[in-house]
Amino acid sequence: MGFIPYIIYPPANQTYDGLIKAVATSVCDVAIGDITVTAKRREIVDFSTSIFDNSVRIIVRQTKTIDVDLLSYLKPFSLKLWSILLICIVYAAVLLCVLEGQNNEALQNRSIISSGAMSMWYSIGTIMGYGADFHVRTAPGRLLTIGLYLLSLVLVATYTANLASDLTISKSKDTISGIDDIKNGKIPFSRIGILIESAEEDYYLREISGGVRNYYPLKTQNELFSSLLNNIIDASILDISAIEYYTNNIYCNLTLAGKDFAPSSYGIVYPKQWLYGKDLDVTILSLRESGVLDDLKRKWFDKNVCQDSSSSYVSTSINMEQMSGLFVTFGLISILSIVLFIWKKRFVIKDCPTRSVH
């Protein structure tokens, strides 16, 4: 806009409402920063068009918890995959009875239930990689065993790797899950830190406490973060742009909880009826339309030095779709073993009339 700026940096303990009053009393011409546009502030100053869309979010400490889960050893595979595996075991056991029943001493002279149990034992032992205390005797049985070994090789390795991954991942559990937990008093109000003379304070007094100042007062953002880390407070609310940057790049032991709320925007503060207000709005709109403001946001705010400091745990269970090719291969091998079994029976049947003639 052609101005020659004279920039004054506010002191560290300067509040946001203090900046507003400085503009309103002509101590400074404009105030630029993460200043939220509110109706109360518009009564004494004017704001430019939005320079950044904003909202509020809760910030808490990361807490490490160990959840007791008696079925945690089943988590490496999805329920659907476990079901398909059980079907394959039963299918292989039935097929083994048919292929080996008349030619394997371990299955001969037994009841159907006993033969089925032995076949099931063989199928389970082979898939688990342990093996069984008897061996197959026929070519179709050996071909079926190859299919079981293939299942064992892939499934055991995948299960072991995925279980180890699940056991070593530290799962974070937030103290609260959203703004409703604060409203319902899930944590003491005296353990909630609020920046004084800020838009967050106005929101807290208006929407949560009904005008009662029952929170823990904080003067600066640095005091907010140190109070969280030193266990003086359990939670606070702050603009999403600020806490996303700090939790992603500086305070890796802090994280975000719940969803965004109280949408608002940032604007440049200037006095009422300022002569250059319209020109400033046009310039800001031009910067937004050309993508300059978005480029600045990506350059300075879309960084993440901390390793997923605000991410939640994602299940690593292997699903059926990822293993579908393995089971299709096993199915094809089992079909080949059936074909081989029928082929051998065909020759046995053809040889029977020849032997009876001799």
From TrEMBL:
Any one annotated GO CC term: membrane
Residue ranges occupied by any Ionotropic glutamate receptor C-terminal domain in the UniProt entry: 2-303
Family matches, as InterPro entries: Glu/Gly-bd, Ionotropic_Glu_rcpt, Iontro_rcpt_C
Chief localisation class: membrane
Entry annotated with the keyword Transmembrane helix: yes
Pfam family, one: Lig_chan-Glu_bd
Membrane topology label: Multi-pass membrane protein
Keyword annotations: Glycoprotein, Ion channel, Ion transport, Ligand-gated ion channel, Membrane, Receptor, Transmembrane, Transmembrane helix, Transport
Keyword Ion transport on entry: yes
Record's subcellular location: Membrane
Residues annotated as transmembrane: 81-99, 111-131, 143-164, 325-343
Gene Ontology MF: a single term: ligand-gated monoatomic ion channel activity
Protein name: Ionotropic glutamate receptor C-terminal domain-containing protein
Species the sequence originates in: Rotaria sordida
